[in-house]
Design brief:
It is a single chain. The chain is α+β, with helices and mostly antiparallel strands. The chain contains 16 helices and 14 strands. The chain folds into 4 domains: 105 residues, Alpha-Beta Plaits (2-Layer Sandwich); 58 residues, MutS, DNA mismatch repair protein, domain I (3-Layer(aba) Sandwich); 49 residues, no CATH class; 156 residues, DNA polymerase, Y-family, little finger domain (Dna Ligase, domain 1, 2-Layer Sandwich), CATH 3.30.1490. Strands 7-8-3-9-10 form a 5-stranded mixed β-sheet. The protein is globular and about 65 Å long. The structure holds a DNA duplex.
DNA sequence: TCTGGGGTCCTGCCTCGT
DNA sequence: TCTGACGAGGCAGGACCC
């Protein structure tokens, strides 16, 4: 599997046993900071903080030199500067990061068509089908690391495993500039001693709830009763964690992803009481949201706003429109109307507008019902419709797809489908 | 220390239609 | 006509991810 190299990371040697693996998780090392060094080599070896030095900016990324001082992503820049006063603060260049990301993803796609980008700096790859072309998963991982370094000029870390979850955990442990291969037969051995917080989906709250019940490692999760896990984190997360702790993760690498919402939000440099100004900001954000919808040829059925007050208390309000729209004025009016419903008049630090329940322009709902159809055929028709019309019909497809097992089928009018 | 911006998913509560 | 059970959807809040 792998060994410690003295830096805290665990890495595999070239040629490590990769039996039963097929999934790679590739993660760029300190991506934003690496791109800045690429564009300005004089920054090489220095502690770098990516973020704005003024206002209420937080750290978007930090070089490993800065991380040694305790600087972390999402930390207020002012705090980071106190921890590492010698750090160079660099304003983020998001377009440039997108550009480099495209170069890296192009390398992945030259190796396998089964690439699932997770964000600008990481992706899952399924390399099962390219063995004859490029070699075993471990060999492909090594090839990717070399090509990203040679062709783009930055380093990345790769986890190789039988499942997405284990591959993701492995790449994290291998960072920076490392590779960790977990052969399928050693999955449980790999998972068992690791802290629950290392699992994908366990954040500070879930970790605290688990640890309060003495559940500290992934082995503890495996050995805990379902009732205990349910009480700690709720039934949905509990079931997921129990499966992942057993090394089970049936998720495949998905190359297509459909956005479910688009939004914009903005934190002011200073808290704002002026409601006229806040209304105009909502309108401006609504315009930006609408512009994105129109570019994507989508419209939205539900508008939501977010208001965060000076004490960080956050309210959201949402409203489903009579008619879907991609018109900024209409979205803005809905946002302002929602804002008027909020009675609290304290200073505001953030406002946001989001469009939800997206559908293609003109892609109206479709009725799928035939009393003579059996459920299997209805499900097939739904699948066809989803393929043809995209996201607009997916929610309905799920409802119909549940079938008679969860209660008697109802007429589509019960689902708002007519 | 004092908390960005872009998202997804889950939960609980309430309302509505059958 | 009324009532209760049930399922589904809308809405609000929160956790989590990068």
């Amino acid at each position: 599997m792998g060994h410690g190299d003295g830096s805290g990371r665990i890495v595999s040697a070239a040629g490590a046993d990769d039996t039963g693996t097929r999934i790679l998780h590739v993660d760029m090392d300190a991506f934003y900071a690496s791109v800045e060094v690429l564009d300005d080599p004089s920054l090489s070896g220095l502690p770098i903080i990516i973020g704005s030095p003024d206002g209420r900016s937080v750290v978007s990324s930090a070089s490993y030199e800065a991380r040694r001082y305790g600087v972390r992503s999402a930390m207020p820049v002012a705090h980071a500067m106190r921890l590492c006063p010698t750090a160079r603060i660099v304003m983020p260049h998001f377009h440039r990061y997108q550009e480099v990301s495209r170069q890296v993803m192009t390398i992945f796609e030259s190796i396998t068509p089964l690439v699932e980008p997770l964000s600008v700096d990481e992706a899952f790859l399924d390399v099962q089908g390219v063995r004859r072309l490029w070699g075993s998963p471990g060999q492909v991982a090594q090839l990717i690391r070399e090509r990203v370094q040679d062709e783009v000029g930055i380093s990345c870390s790769v986890g190789v495993a039988a499942t997405k979850h284990v591959a993701k955990m492995a790449s994290t442990i291998a960072k920076p500039d490392g590779m960790l291969v977990v052969p399928a037969a050693r999955t449980l051995e790999f998972l068992s001693p690791r802290p629950v917080r290392a699992m994908w989906g366990v954040g500070p709250k879930a970790a605290e709830a688990l640890e309060a019940r003495g559940i500290r490692t992934i082995r503890d999760i495996r050995e805990s009763s379902k009732e205990m896990l349910d009480r700690a984190v709720g039934p949905a997360l509990s079931s997921r964690l129990a499966q992942l702790a057993r090394g089970e993760d049936a998720r495949s690498v998905e190359t297509e992803r459909v956005e479910k919402s688009v939004g914009h939000e903005e934190t002011f440099d200073h808290d704002v009481l002026d409601r006229t100004f806040l209304r105009s900001e909502l309108l401006r954000l609504a315009d930006r949201v609408a512009a994105r919808l129109r570019r994507a040829e989508w419209e939205t059925a539900t508008i939501s706003i977010k208001i965060r007050f000076d004490d960080f208390r956050t309210l959201t309000r949402s409203q489903t429109l009579a008619e879907p729209t991609a018109v900024g004025q209409r979205i803005g009016e809905a946002a302002q109307a929602l804002f008027e419903q909020i009675e609290r008049r304290d200073p505001v630090r953030l406002v946001g507008v989001r469009a939800e329940k997206l559908r293609p322009v003109g892609g109206g709902g479709i009725a799928l019902w035939d009393d003579d159809e059996d459920w299997r055929r209805v499900e097939g028709a739904v699948d066809d419709a989803v393929a043809r019309f995209g996201n607009a019909t997916i929610t309905r497809a799920r409802h119909l797809g549940r079938g008679p097992g969860r209660g008697a089928p109802q007429h589509p009018k019960a689902h708002g489908l007519d």
